[in-house]
Design goal:
Helices cover about 5% and strands about 40% of the residues. Belongs to the neurexin family. Keywords: Disulfide bond, EGF-like domain, Membrane, Repeat, Signal, Transmembrane, Transmembrane helix. This is Contactin associated protein family member 5b.
Length: about 1250
């Protein structure tokens, strides 16, 4: 059906000029209202300007209503309420509604119009007829659907309905059974909650219960749709267009309901009209239960339906009229002190006076009411931090106040009553007992008063001279049911200009929105909101940014190595901003290759006897990472392996007669695998078969020889697609003398094939193409590039109207996109040329709150998104890398590590099949070769390369030379930051999204020291906000780490070692913090907050102090050797040596450069728990699970050069015994172990 509208309904005047509608320029209310005569389903609208004129509407809002009152604004899928209109008078602009609306009345509200003329409008409405069965529940009624039998047991249920209500609470559907099954659908504080239990409550209490809430602000007296679909334990719960998929627990699959299902409430058995819980007050339509039309049966008075109370079959309309205060600075409603009086506003009211109203808002602060009393007295009602504060100002210096209520900015309706009665002023909230100010608090002599004028909720500028000023933000929210002196205020009279005055006010509509639904905060970020915006709290999530999109963790151990880290435990996030959470792994950086180690719960050797194929031994392995995380880690790594140690005695792996597997393992996909070694999956083979050295060449495994002696079929599995091992099954140890011993080692991987995944573009018309960018609501793009060309497009993806592009022009990187609000362009200009053949970093991000662009360490550029604009980026073309679809402005040079929303695009592989593009990048600095160490930066030269050691604590040609300084008594070095430093953050914003390398709440500290004096201050970092971080030696010489991030709380203090480190030996300190998690070389610590060190002021080595114990250490300073000090990207010790006389570096006392660290290294070295540490093969993986392993990996070599003592002896438990056979983790079975005397008495070497 198409409804062509040439006429309109407008409460003011109607003007039809030459085929179209136009309002008078003096009209305060400008809208075109359409009456469709009955409720219909509207699917589309179209607009056109006024015929033969220069009048048209360029943008408009669309409102709808069932009864011509209580309007609601239509919003598109991306939450914007603005429809693009016409650009001329003749063209037709058609909009198909993303979700249809069922309504009788429509309003077209012009928001923008022709600059050449005025507002002119013709409209067409498209839709189809809509019929429904409606029931009205008055809050004391319900419908009972009674079954034909005593109980109904179902494995599949479908319940669908629409409802509308002005009450925030009430039961819509309820059914229960005697064994404890139940299903309840109820409104609770404006949300819809579904409670369901499918289990026997007596036998399994709470095991099958599940509750889920969906929707918000559903008490708005507008229709909302509900669909519940259940099949066995799986439930799909949909409210409007939001769906939650949930699964019940317990053992039961069926819902067993006795006698009846009730709609509208839960009647008390035997007492019709009495309800156990608050029942529903509102209307339902098209109510179906498993295909049965409940309302239709009730209307026809069928015996299956029993009606409790007064249920009618037409929907009553609301009587309350709402008003929306739009502006936090200029909205106000001015009313006379007594609306019932027809006299002037200044006549006043004496004796008694009261004002009541309902309000709802998300804002925590706002002015709700102002009343001028006699002389200079006035009465203010404020919303302050979610509480109500009533203040009576007797003069400029005398006042009294009451504070009541709490949590009133929760979006719910709250009722307020303010009363003045002689000597008493009182306020009540939500019908609670009133709180009053009595007697002297007001004035003993004040027996009567005059209310001069009354304002809800702000003050107009014209009243400033009467003392009406906004002490805080004006109220922004909804009000209704305004009653002054027991007389209801007719807001329609206010709208028509008959009563009072107003500004920035919408009447007969409540425009409140839940900006946290849907929740745009990612990775479990907590959403909070105000009237016009929302905020994401990312505390404790491991992510940062405006929508908690950006991971604060590195993606791999290799990436940690590039930041200058040493071996230890790290949180890594292999998919970055993707959906997977970070996981803790061990990174072994003692070799040229960086090994990542992931443990599991089955690290100890297991002896198996008595198992058979019918009753096999089964061991399930649970890893410290999920299988999804492991899959991503394996995909990212260059090489992975896992050792399965297997020794046997008269126990076969395969049946020697028919080859049937008797033992096997399951891969990460749960598939059975029967090979026991190698990187190519084979069938029924072991390592000895691959090496052709089995003890009996008639078999592929040593164990299959079935000998009485112990044999070995240990193998190294290295086929990544099958790793890790998730289950071991052993089935042939039930014969006399049969036994098997196995041990599954941790998963170990090295390399990161994405860090240097790259492509070279050497033709301007060449490009790589990938599938369309999937980035509707959030997108981050990061990559490195180097080039000699001044300009070119790095990346482009187009849609019908939307696009995204990142490109280079001379010394400028530009990030541009369009989501429907007009093109957005961010640029970063570099003071040095970007086509210098060196690597440069680019990161662009766009989300529903903001867009940002980062280039190298240049200041971040950002732009906030409009709070009510379009927010979905809709693309449909291919993603072009290094060029455009037009083959113009192509990029010439190299791009590497191109990451989009946590996924790295495989440029290397795609380049192999694309003309004009080659895989890899030429040059010395284009590979993973460690040319520059310890944070050193490789810089290409015409004939070779050099290492830039600016941000490294080391020096020398390859940033490997120790920088050591001897401190004497009173010596200190202070590095003062040039400006408030917040980890290289743009200081103009607190919530902007920063890329992981410069994320919030992150510090990396490393240095070495040698001393014999305690207490001692090693390092202190202080901020402009009186925060600090300190590393000290306590009185007993033990190491302490202090964090004071919140001055309102006690500092966090950690003591990694109890024994004294003031022993004249060289010790290495390595700390890194990510949010609340802090790691040293050996273990993890949990801080009380994830606050950042905000606006860092200075870093001091040696004498300093803040808290008492820190002050004691600081007063003593430090005497000894400090070596290779690193704090984030700063090397303060090296800066002190190289920049003597600089205003940034302050040196007190005698500072002497030395090689004390190098000399101590040559004699003997120990880290925090011994520089040489052995792995505990028994407990290694168990402790990874606990994220608190105290022993690090060490390749055992040249042990005779080192001395091990004290704590190391306790950690040397790497030897385990299997029937007299000794094994050390990392050594092959052919290696024999010998013992050697040392100062600890025993050393396995």
């Amino acid at each position: 059906i198409m409804y062509r509208v040439w006429t309109c309904l407008n409460p003011n005047r109607l003007f039809l000029r030459g085929g179209g509608w136009t309002p008078e320029r003096t009209d305060r209310l400008r809208w075109l209202q359409v009456d469709l005569r009955e409720r219909v389903e509207v699917t589309a609208v179209a607009t056109q300007g006024r015929f033969g004129s220069s009048d048209w509407v360029s943008s408009y809002a669309l409102q709808y209503s069932d009864a011509g009152r209580a309007w609601k604004q239509y919003r598109l899928d991306d939450s914007t309420g603005t429809f693009p209109g016409n650009a001329n008078a003749d063209g037709v602009v058609h909009h198909k509604l993303s979700h249809s609306i069922r309504t009788r009345y429509l309003r077209f509200l012009p928001l923008g119009w022709s600059a050449e003329g005025w507002i002119g409008l013709r409209v067409e409405v498209y839709g189809c007829s809509y019929k429904s069965d409606v029931a009205d529940f008055d809050g004391r009624s319900s419908l009972l659907y009674r079954f034909n039998q005593k109980s109904m047991s179902t494995v599949k249920d479908v319940i669908s309905l629409q409802f509308k209500s002005q009450r925030a609470d009430g039961v819509l559907v309820h059914g229960e059974g005697q064994r404890g099954d139940y299903i309840t659908l109820e409104l609770h504080q404006g949300s819809l909650a579904l409670h369901i239990n499918l289990d026997d409550a007596k036998m399994h209490p709470s095991s099958g219960h599940v509750s889920v809430s969906l929707g918000s602000l559903l008490d708005d007296q507008h229709w909302h749709s509900v669909l519940i679909e259940r099949f066995n334990k799986q439930i799909n719960f949909t409210v409007d267009r939001l769906t939650r998929h949930i699964r019940t627990g317990g053992l039961g699959d069926s819902l067993e309901v006795d006698y009846e299902l009730s709609f509208g409430g839960i009647p008390l058995p035997g007492k019709p009209g009495t309800f156990l819980r608050k029942n529903f007050h509102g209307c339902m339509e098209n109510l179906y239960y498993n295909g049965v039309n409940i309302i239709d049966l009730a209307k026809r008075k069928k015996p299956q339906i029993y009606s409790v109370g007064n249920v009618t079959f037409s929907c009553s309309e609301p009587t309350a009229v709402s008003a929306t205060f739009l502006s936090s600075s200029s909205s106000f409603l001015q009313l006379p002190a007594d609306p019932a009086a027809e006299g002037a506003e200044g006549e006043g009211v004496s004796g008694r006076w009261s004002a009541g109203f309902h309000f709802r808002t998300w804002n925590r602060d706002g002015l709700l009411l102002w009343s001028g009393l006699q002389r200079s007295e006035r009465l203010l009602l404020l919303l302050a931090d979610g509480q109500l504060r009533l203040t009576h100002y007797r003069s400029a210096v005398q006042s009294a106040e009451i504070t009541v209520g709490q949590g009133l900015s929760n979006g719910q309706w709250h009722s307020i009553l303010v009363s003045l009665n002689g000597l008493q002023a009182s306020v009540s909230v939500d019908n609670e007992p009133a709180s009053s100010m009595l007697g002297s608090e007001i004035d003993h002599e004040l027996n009567s008063f005059i209310v001069i004028v009354f304002f809800l909720p702000g003050c107009p500028a014209a009243m400033a001279n009467q003392g009406c000023r906004n002490p805080t933000l004006a109220f922004q929210g909804c009000m209704r049911t305004i009653i002054i002196n027991n007389h209801p205020v007719d807001l329609y009279r206010v709208q028509q200009g008959i009563l009072g005055n107003y500004s920035e006010l919408q009447i007969d509509i409540c425009g409140i929105r839940d900006r946290c639904l849907p929740n745009y905060c990612e990775h479990d970020g907590e959403c909070s909101q105000s009237w016009s915006n929302f905020h994401c709290d990312c505390s404790g999530t491991g992510y940062t940014g405006a929508t908690c999109h950006n991971s604060i963790f590195e993606p791999s151990c290799e990436a940690h190595r590039l930041t200058g880290s040493a071996s230890g435990f790290f949180s890594i996030d292999p998919d970055g901003s993707g959906p997977l959470k970070p996981t803790v792994v061990y990174c072994n950086m003692t070799e040229e290759k960086v090994w990542m180690v992931v443990g599991h719960n089955g690290s100890a050797p297991v002896s198996v006897k008595g198992s058979s194929l019918q009753k096999p031994h089964v061991m399930k392995l649970n890893y410290s990472a999920t299988l999804q995380q492991l899959s991503t880690l394996l995909h990212r790594a260059e090489h992975c392996q896992q050792e399965v140690l297997y020794r046997c005695r008269k126990s076969r792996l395969f049946n020697t007669w028919d080859g049937t597997p008797l033992s096997w393992w399951l891969d990460r996909g749960g598939e059975r695998r029967t090979y026991w070694g190698g990187f190519l999956p084979g069938v029924q083979q072991c390592s000895c078969s691959l090496a052709e050295n089995c003890i009996d060449m008639n078999y592929f495994c040593n164990c299959d020889a079935d000998r009485n002696s112990w044999e070995n079929d240990t193998g190294l599995l290295s086929y990544k697609d099958h790793l890790p091992v998730t289950e071991i099954v052993v089935g042939d140890t039930n014969r006399t003398g049969s036994e098997a011993v196995y041990k599954v080692g941790p998963l170990q991987c090295y390399g990161d094939r994405f860090l240097w995944n790259s492509a070279s573009f050497y033709q301007e018309s060449s490009y790589l193409h990938f599938p369309t960018l999937q980035a509707e609501l959030s997108m981050d793009i990061s990559f490195y590039f180097k080039t000699t060309a001044p300009s070119g497009v790095f990346l482009e993806n187009l849609g019908v109207k939307h696009f995204v592009r990142v490109e280079l022009s001379p010394s400028v990187v530009t990030f541009a996109f369009e989501v429907g609000n007009g093109p957005v362009v961010l640029t970063v200009k570099s003071h040095i040329p970007l086509n210098d053949k060196q690597w440069h970093y680019v990161r662009a991000e766009r989300n529903v709150k903001e867009a940002s662009l980062q280039v190298d360490q240049l200041p971040l550029r950002f732009l906030e998104a409009p709070s009510d604009g379009h927010n979905r980026l809709q693309l449909n073309g291919q993603l072009f890398i290094g060029g455009t679809a037009s083959r113009q402005k192509g990029f010439l040079g190299c791009i590497r590590a191109l990451n989009v929303n946590g996924l790295t695009l495989d440029l290397d592989e795609r380049a192999k099949m694309t003309p004009g593009v080659s895989s890899g990048c030429p040059g010395h600095c284009s590979s993973q070769n460690r040319l520059c160490h310890n944070r050193g930066r490789c810089i290409e030269k015409s004939s070779g390369y050099v290492c830039d050691c600016t941000h490294s604590a080391y020096g020398g040609p390859h940033c490997q030379k120790e920088v050591s300084v001897s401190f004497e008594s009173g010596t200190s070095v202070t590095y003062t930051f040039q400006e408030p430093f917040s980890v290289m953050r743009n200081k103009s914003r607190q919530s902007s999204a920063i890329y992981a390398q410069s994320s919030k709440s992150r510090e990396n500290v490393a240095f070495r020291f040698l001393t014999t004096k305690a207490p001692a201050m090693l390092m202190t970092v202080t901020t402009y906000h009186q925060q600090y971080m300190a590393v000290i030696l306590a009185h007993n010489g033990s190491l302490q780490i202090w964090y004071q991030l919140n001055r309102e709380k006690q500092p966090d203090v950690f003591t990694p070692t109890q024994h004294s480190l003031a022993n004249g030996k060289l010790h290495r300190i390595q700390l890194h913090r990510e949010g609340r998690d802090m790691y040293d070389i050996n273990q993890k610590y949990r801080l009380s907050t994830d606050r950042e060190l905000n606006m860092i002021r200075s870093l001091t080595l040696g004498r300093a102090g803040v808290d008492e114990e820190v002050l004691q250490a600081g007063s003593r300073g430090f005497i000894g050797c400090l070596s290779s000090v690193q704090f984030n990207h700063l090397a303060p010790l090296k800066a002190a040596i190289l920049n003597r006389g600089s205003s940034l570096v302050s040196v007190l006392g005698n500072l002497v450069e030395s090689n004390c660290g190098e000399l101590a290294d040559k004699s003997s070295s120990r880290s925090l728990s011994g520089e040489l540490q052995l792995i505990n093969a028994e407990s290694f993986t168990d402790k990874i699970i606990q994220e608190s392993i105290k022993i690090s990996v060490l390749k055992m070599s040249s042990l005779r050069e080192h001395e091990l003592a004290g704590q190391l002896e306790e950690e040397l438990v790497a030897v385990f015994w299997v029937s007299g056979w000794h094994l050390v983790e990392g050594l092959t079975s052919e290696t024999f172990l010998c013992s050697k005397k040392s100062n600890m008495g025993r050393l396995m070497a």
